[in-house]
Design goal:
alpha/beta, Spore Coat Polysaccharide Biosynthesis Protein SpsA, Chain A, nine-stranded mixed β-sheet, two-stranded antiparallel ribbon, 9 helices, 11 strands, 19% strand, Glycosyl transferase family 2, Glycosyltransf_2, transferase activity
Amino acid sequence: MPLSDQGWLTAMDVSIIVCTYNRAESLRDTLSALHAQKTSPSRELEVVVVDNNSKDQTRAVVEEMQRVWPQLRYEFQGEQGLSHARNHGIAVAHGNTLLFTDDDVLPEPDWVEVTLAGLEKYRADSCGGYIAPIWEVPPPSWLTERFYGFLAIRTDRSDDYVITSPSQAPFGANMAFRREVFQKVGGFDTSRGRKGKVLASGEDGELFERILSAGLKAVFLGQSRVHHKVESFRLTKRYFRRWRFQSSRNIAQNKKMVGERRLLNIPLYVFPQFLRAVARMLWGHVSQPRDEAFNREMVVCHFLGLMQGLYRSRLS
């Protein structure tokens, strides 16, 4: 869908929310990049760091930077989970526009101004942007762009466009909202999203599903850019299998599935689908390129997580 080119927003207060968990040194880099933002002299801006039970030097890193940066705030959220931390940030932030990034991300120097200008230009209620990788080591040959979403990388398009489906939902490393969005649709679903070391997801897509259902406008801004660190341990098949399994398990525990005929709370139609996925995986390993073969393996991991999630929720 083409975008209109009409301005409507005036200067506004901005809160940048960074939720963090046990990444003190990486957080230092993120805060340094935010401190280097080139913003309008009249821009009232704050950065809110929400510490979600870190056991490292996170608080000390923030307090050290606060000595030269009074716009930096420290908040603690003891309820474990990224969605809990984000909702806490929303509740304590002062800005009329809320920008989100992560503790392993380096926004480009014009990130704030480009994002705000895009919201104004397209009269949007929310937006997301481009997320480029910073590889700690070169990615293996099987890790093609089809898997970038699992790493919260978004480089498939660099133009601006209207978001029309939850499948196009921005990633938390680069997204922004007018405050009124949360007043209309609520915050992040705390039953979804990463909790400590459990690799779950789905909270961003679920929020944008509510945003679109409410008739609010979301856009992708190709020039709103950040750079996301990708550690070497995340470039392994083991990590991807774990991510897919735990994310699908989390979704199954929180989303109803159709089907009255069940075994162990798993709809019967899931079992033949799972067996077909296994057969496709086995055939793929002898007949398909490495990325397609592993993609089929990921589908099997999805079914395994789905079934465990449904089994776990059988009593609720």
